[in-house]
Amino acid sequence: MLRDVTFGQYYPTNSPIHRLDSRAKLIFAVLYITVLFMTYSFAGYAACALFVVMLAVISKIPIKTLLKSVKTVMFLVIFVSVINILFYNGNNLLWGWWKIQIYADGLIFASKMALRLILLVLGPAILTFTTTPMELTDGIESLMSPLKVLKFPVHDVAIIMSIALRMIPALMEETDKIVMAQKARGADFDSGNVFRRAKALIPVLIPLFVGAFRRADELALALDARCYNATPNRTRYKILRFKWADFIATLVFLAFATVLLLDKYLIGMDNLIWGLFQ
């Protein structure tokens, strides 16, 4: 069910990860995604998975709750895996029929792509689970503050990104309610071909867009009622300051990133493991 989608939600616990500076966590998320794209070995992906699990344990987030965030990309993971298996040309042919040929290299490459996509979701999910929307807004605005010299609307962009991230679970929940209401009225979303299912989603999309515009209008009225104004002289309830815990976390993450950047040695470890099974 769409109500199980957890990406974008905040999981309130009193953990060391929750207490870290939001700017540090945003930098960690960007570096995590960067080094993940530079990783090409199973050993590297295993290290990333172990690191994410360690962060989940420290932040007191249940592994089951964290894995629910992968549901949103499972279709993409399966689609990319199938495409790579069917159209990847390698050396070790495992099975062939007509124009369809499956190679061992294709299976390995598809597995790596699937792991990369899953880890790309799990890493930023830790960020949203451990950081409130307000903290994300303050962190994004602080990191983008040098752009104020160029008259760039830093605060506006930060608040838009924060609201958009917060609206993901709300829209998913509203979509689930609309689907259940349509099913109670006899709508069928599970049978027929792809085009019939896409056509059946039209009664869902229209009220979903109406609800999204209604939420946006209510949010605008709420901000206006509270005299909100995106002026450069706005004060903050919490002032962002780097602490010793942030510096220690930075050193730990840099050590982790350094290990992953030595991926060529991890690829050699992969080749050694595969050689033992051949």
Number of self-contained structural domains:
1
Strand-residue proportion: under 5%
The structure class reads mainly alpha
Q: What are the low-pLDDT stretches, counting only 5+ consecutive residues below 50?
A: 272-278
Topology readout:
Blueprint: H1 22-37, H2 42-58, H3 63-67, H4 74-87, E1 93-97, E2 100-103, H5 104-130, H6 133-143, H7 154-184, H8 194-200, H9 202-225, H10 244-261, H11 263-277
Antiparallel strand pairs: 1-2
Can you walk through the features of this model?
With 278 residues, the chain is mostly helical. The chain has helices at residues 22-37, 42-58, 63-67, 74-87, 104-130, 133-143, 154-184, 194-200, 202-225, 244-261, 263-277, and strands at 93-97, 100-103. A two-stranded antiparallel sheet has the order 1-2. Helix 1 (22-37) packs antiparallel against helix 5 (104-130), helix 1 crosses helix 6 (133-143) and helix 1 packs parallel to helix 10.
Question: What is the structure about, briefly put?
Answer:
This protein is mainly alpha-helical and 278 residues long. The chain is built from eleven helices and two strands, in the order H-H-H-H-E-E-H-H-H-H-H-H-H.
Record keyword descriptors for this entry.
about 65% helix, disordered C terminus, globular, mainly alpha, about 280 residues, two-stranded antiparallel ribbon
